[in-house]
Amino acid sequence: MKIKNLVSGILAMAMVAGCNASLVSANAAKAPKIGDCIPANGNCPSYIVGDITNDGKVNVTDLSVLTAYVKQYRPLDKAKYGPFVELRADNNLDGKINLTDLVRMIAYIKNIK
Q1: Is the dihedral of CA 5, 67, 107, 82 positive or negative?
Q2: For residues 90 and 19, what is the distance between their CA atoms, to the nearest angstrom?
């Protein structure tokens, strides 16, 4: 039942983001890894999980943008980083951009996987 609820939540988040819900496999029971490439599907272009700045890599720049957002210093700038910036920032696909995403990004940057 927990896996079913998790998958339902992920699919709902994908729809809200304006992407085709099939971008997330119904068999996926855990979040993608930061740095994974999510293929294009429907209205959603392909993107790299955690690549907030949309420069093709996940690095300290992405971490600083995410930190500023989570600490409520700066919003995620769609004009600067593209229309799907929230989707790239929500690296565990739970529909929220929060401390969990920040901790996962820190661990990835420090190579603690």
Answers
A1: positive
A2: 14
- Beta-carbon contacts of 62 under 8 Å, excluding residues fewer than 6 positions away, are 50, 51, 52, 53, 105
Write out residues in the chain with pLDDT < 70, as ranges.
1-31, 112-113
Q: Looking at this protein, which amino acid is placed at residue 101?
A: D
Nearest-Å Rg of the Cα atoms of the chain is 13
Closest CA to 55 of 13, 15, 85, 32: 85
Give SS3 for 69: helix
Q: Encoding tokens for residue 72?
A: 């409520």
pLDDT, tens only, 30-54: 667 888 888 877 777 788 999 999 9
